[in-house]
Amino acid sequence: MTWALAVILLWPSMLWASLQLDVGRLQLAGLSAQGTVLFLDGQAGWLRIATLEVAGRQWRGVRLDCPRLRLNDGRVDCRDASIAGVPELADARLELAFSTTTRTANVTVRFAGGGRVVVALGPGEAIKADLAQLPLALAARLLPDLARWQALGTVSGRVRLAGARLDAELHLAGGGFADAAGTHAAEALVGQLQLGATRRDGAWRWQAELAWTAGGVFWDPVFVPPGVSLQANGVLDTRQLSVDALRLQAPGVDAVTGRAVIDRAGPRLMEADMSVHRADLAVMVPQFALPMLAPAQAERWQVAGWADATVQWRDGRLQAAELTLDQAGFAYLGQRFRVGPLSGRLPWHRADARAGRLAVDGLHWQKLDFQPFALEVAVDQGVVSIRPARLPVLDGAIIIDTLTLARTDTDWRGEGSFFMEPVSMRALTRALDLPEMAGTLSASMPGLVVTPQRIGLDGALILAVFDGYVQATGLEVVEPFGLLPRLRANVVAEHLDLAQLTETFSFGAVSGFIDLSLADLQMAAWRPLRFEATVRSTPGDYPRRISQRAVEHITALGGASASAAIQRSFLQFFNDFGYREIGLACRLVRGVCHMQGLEGGGAQSAPFTIVRGGGIPALNVIGYNRRVDWEELIARIKAAVASDAAPVIK
Predict the structure, then answer these.
(1) How many CB atoms lie within 10 A of CB 14?
(2) What average pLDDT does range 471-495 have in this prediction?
(3) Could you report the per-residue pLDDT of 515-524, keeping only the tens digit for each?
(4) Above pLDDT 90, what percent of the chain?
(5) How far is Cα 549 from Cα 507, in angstroms, rounded to an integer?
């Protein structure tokens, strides 16, 4: 083959008109051409190759057409050539120069869409390639799996292969990609890659440095900003990719270090040890954790503090992990709920349970401050269990009886049961900016279930207050962390002390006890939508008195036409009155309260008794308006309490 080429190249072009030569096989650095036929016709020619192989890729039936061909002193120059049979170069134009003297070749490829590649083939195995603004979309031609990502941007740089040594320096500008659904995308990417590798005993030992300096990546639901740098080295062979050492630096974390082994057949991560050093929770949690755990409430959380983490991956699956927190803090919805600072460690291992501990120096809800406490934690595979603990608050405590947190297939779920040691109502209401109440409060809350979508009770919430108790069943809050939380419940209260209750709300003095039923309560954004409420005097023998001021406020509940069955002039001689029973019902539907008294239902215009008198003197309070706008009713009660208005008496 060599002597035949020499004859052609040294033959003066004027002495021949056309010539065809079967070259057979042509071998250059990284290139193999078999079944090669060369045809020369004056100042043009073509080359037909049965099988062309370059860097492991193979094409058949390749034809190179060269309309401008020069042969001179052992050198071939081909200009404005096109190539058929290689789809990746269908729109490209080539320039080729080959010297039989130095056994070197230069190939310049210009693409119709822009970009240029200049390849220099030296003696032996030397190959150099210079890339100038090469469209990344061309890579989809070589890598069909990449086509669905709609790659954008240009690559510039150089690649050199000399014997067993490979070096590359590449620069990406305006890079981007997107899948069909748009859930994974990037734009305006700028980055640099430096790669060096040496082949030895059938394997490549490599070192790489990657810098991502501009642009952003959205990997639903996480947005990753630029400013990432990576240094790594390892070994690549036919079976696996080994990363012997890796160091990544990014905004919000001092460093991520580790090692890994990847099975190329999958590809599949077989083994890894990774460590996160000094992660800034104020950056990392809103960026990575909240979009996955609570995307709708991500902007409502504030996070601070630091964390370290380690991960072990063995036999293709997660084997162990550990999280260490340092002065971490969490706040929700404008500081209304705050936890921290807290410090401690949470370990996890696939094979067995591990124990952890969290020291909590601060827990705050509204103006309610808990004293420091510690939580002993057991982590067993996917479940975190909190051991029984006492959380001191005011002059009592909240007791955690059981509490577990578990990651489900789609979200997370918490379950537990709690109770409260007696707490001074006076201190509690002051801390919560509520009207000051007397007595103590204790509570039991079994069967609590919390998810991002729902807070519910499988059991009953029981509160001991006002010398009686309140029980809520079927209690649930849907979308508790959303913009429109919805509450459902059925509430029953028995034997509430009216003296304590009316004193608390400046309602006037009423002695006695009441029972309350609140069925089918439904609220949205903490405003009632519907319920059926009934208030009745508790059966039994006990003093029953009602003050003039309380009568004034009760008349507001009956609407504008409410009246007392007693002469107005007679009221001034008495501070309070006796009564036999109190009864009032309200069925709220579409913003209207349908009122009933002690007699139950009746015609729309029929009066109803709210207070039935008894003793000396006795007073009956009668209501005449059975349909009352709910917002108007609430406004009327507030106005009556604030102004001490006199009742409408007939």
Answers:
(1) 7
(2) 87
(3) 999 999 999 8
(4) 35
(5) 7
Those residues whose C-beta lies under 8 Å from the C-beta of residue 47, and which sit 6 or more positions away, are 36, 37, 38, 39, 63, 64, 66
Cα separation, 78 vs 69, whole angstroms? 5
In Å, what is the CA distance from 540 to each residue of 139, 513, 537? 88, 9, 9
Give the contacts of 475 (CB within 8 A, at least 6 positions apart). Answer: 456, 457, 461, 487, 488, 489
Which DSSP category does 13 fall into? G
- Contact (CB, 8 A) for 171 and 159: no
Give the type of residue at 529. L
Q: What is the enclosing helix (H) or strand (E) of 4?
A: helix 2-10
How far separated are the first and last CA of the chain, in Å rounded?
A: 127
Residue 286: DSSP 8-state: I
Task: Give the C-alpha separation, 604 to 624, whole Å.
Answer: 9
**What residues contact residue 345 under an 8 Å CB cut-off, 6+ apart?**
322, 323, 324, 325, 356, 357
Confirm if 100 and 115 have CB atoms less than 8 A apart.
Answer: no
Beta strand 75-84 pairing with 92-99: antiparallel
Q: At which residue do the structure tokens 């008894």 appear? A: 614
Report d(CA 208, CA 227) in Å as an integer: 17
> Between vectors from CA 460 to CA 385 and to CA 490, what angle results, nearest 5°?
135
Contact 213, 173 (CB under 8 A): no
Reading the block at residue 224, the tokens are 């990753």
Helices then strands, counting H and E runs in the chain, come out as 9, 44
User: How does residue 507 score in pLDDT terms, banded at 50, 70 and 90?
Assistant: low
Residue with tokens 């006990």: 542
- Residue listed under structure tokens 């603990």: 389
- The pTM of this model reads 0.69
Q: Name the percent of the chain in helix, strand, coil, to the closest 5.
A: 15, 60, 25
Distance, C-alpha 502 to centroid of its chain: 47
Beta bridge partners of 469: 464, 494
Q: How far apart are CA 523 and CA 533, in angstroms?
A: 14
Compute the distance between CA of residue 515 and CA of residue 578 in angstroms, rounded to an integer. 19
At position 534, the amino acid (one-letter code) is T
Scan for tokens 């309560």, then name that residue: 521
Q: Using one digit for the tens of pLDDT, what is the confidence trace for 277-327?
A: 999 999 999 888 888 777 777 778 889 999 999 999 999 899 999 999 999
CA distance 605 to 119: 99
Distance from C-alpha of 552 to C-alpha of 541, rounded to nearest angstrom:
25
Task: Give me the pLDDT at residue 176, please.
Answer: 92
DSSP letters for 589-632: ETTEEEEEBTTB---TT--EEEEEE-SSSB--EEE--SEEEHHH
Please write the tens of the pLDDT for every residue from 564-599. 444 344 555 667 788 899 999 999 999 999 989 898
The CA distances from residue 616 to 538, 574, 575, in Å, are 21, 10, 12
Query: CA–CA separation, 192 vs 172, rounded Å?
Result: 6
Instruction: Parse the chain into domains and list their residue ranges.
Output: 1-124, 466-643
Q: Is 250 within 8 Å of 227 (Cβ atoms)?
A: yes
- CB-based burial label for 569 (10 Å; 0-12, 13-18, 19+): exposed
8 A C-beta contact, residue 341 and residue 327? yes
DSSP 8-state class, residue 445: E
Three-class secondary structure of residue 2 per DSSP: helix
| Least reliable range by pLDDT among 32-41, 437-446, 631-640 | 631-640
Q: Is the pLDDT at 504 greater than 70, yes or no?
A: no
d(CA 491, CA 477) in angstroms, rounded, equals 14
